[in-house]
Amino acid sequence: MTITLPDLPALKNVGEEEILLDLACGAYAARHLSRQLAADVAGVSRHDFDEALYARRIPSYTEDMLAQDLETLRALGSR
């Protein structure tokens, strides 16, 4: 896939890597991509992607994930 951005002065000092990371963070936040796929899109490690999410205040562990984990623990504890 190729994305063409307009040649705007505001984008002159923004590098391709930064734009890819912003795009990947947005796609993850919108639930279009998993964390690993978004990290791959950005071309960074999963750890670096998690740091980028944290810096942008995008949660990488949701309340739904917590609820699922707690349910799994309850199910395992009742065995």
What is the compact description of this entry?
By secondary structure, the chain is an all-alpha fold.
Describe the structure.
The protein is an all-alpha fold and 79 residues long. The chain has one domain. It contains 4 helices and no strands. The protein is elongated, with a radius of gyration of 17 Å. The relative contact order is 0.10.
Number of strands: 0
Query: How would the global form be characterised?
Result: elongated
The percent range for strand residues is: under 5%
Number of domains: 1
Query: What pattern of helices and strands is seen along the backbone?
Result: HHHH
Distance between the termini: 48 Å
Given helix and strand content, the structural type is mainly alpha
> How would you sum up the major sheet?
none
Radius of gyration: 17 Å
* Poorly predicted parts: none
Mean pLDDT: 93
Helix count equals 4
Helix content: 55-70%
Q: What are the main properties of this structure?
A:
UPF0175; elongated; 59% helix; mainly alpha; single chain; 4 helices; 79 residues
Structural topology:
Layout: H1 16-29, H2 35-42, H3 46-55, H4 63-77
